[in-house]
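To the team - protoporphyrin IX containing FE complex, inputs and output below.
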Amino acid sequence: MLLLAKDETGEGMSDIELRDELMTLLLAGYETTATSLAWAFYWIHRQPEIYRKLLQELETLGNDPYPMKIIKLPYLNAVCCETLRIYPVVLIVSPREAKSPIAIMGQEYPVGTALAPCIYLTHHREDLYPEPKKFKPERFLERQYSAYEFLPFGGSNRRCIGAAFAMFEMKLVLATILRRYTFALAEKQPVKQVRRGITLTPAGGVKMVMTGKRMQMEQESASMATV
Ligand code: HEM
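Output:
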């Protein structure tokens, strides 16, 4: 697709432009989702009640883990959203430049000001998210947040192009692994967040131990092969 793409003047991309596009997709698309998954596994296994509720929901899939069914599971969706809320992997959206003077909360910004809304600070506002430091997926079942309140993928015309794919991937990976294996966190102490560039990652990673296989694994593999 990228090789065939043409701009408004009918020009294709140079080799350097193609390489840059591929590097962006690789970095923006891989590191972000991998980090979100690490945080999701961490939070799910820190709170047995959440793990229990999630497994209960995953069990409703029976032996038919059709991906379109998995992505519609409400509690799994809430767990993914809460993971992206509490530690949004990307801390700030790409900076925007003011094309006309703008006032935000009484502060004037002249033309040319670079503005970079902070996702992390928005997601930790007490008025929007009571007890913001607590991992509580239920908040996403109890109310619907607007695009200005919950913005792990940024917003408007530069919103993350991989948002839908990333949510799809997170849900499929979590559902597939949690249905098949059991895990425990290798360390009891909380994992610290560390800033790496514009991303928020688990310091030293999230270390886990596989403690067993779950029952339906063999039946499921057979069913997956028919999807
Ligand atoms: C959980 C996973 C991900 C998170 C949290 C995330 C977050 C973000 C954020 C906050 C932005 C900036 C948006 C803005 O400025 O309004 C962005 C941009 C972008 N993301 Fe993602 N992203 C994720 C996964 C992906 C994936 C899977 C891909 C590709 C397959 C991807 C490709 C991109 C690209 C190309 C941009 C730049 C878009 C533009 O400037 O027009 N991201 N992402």
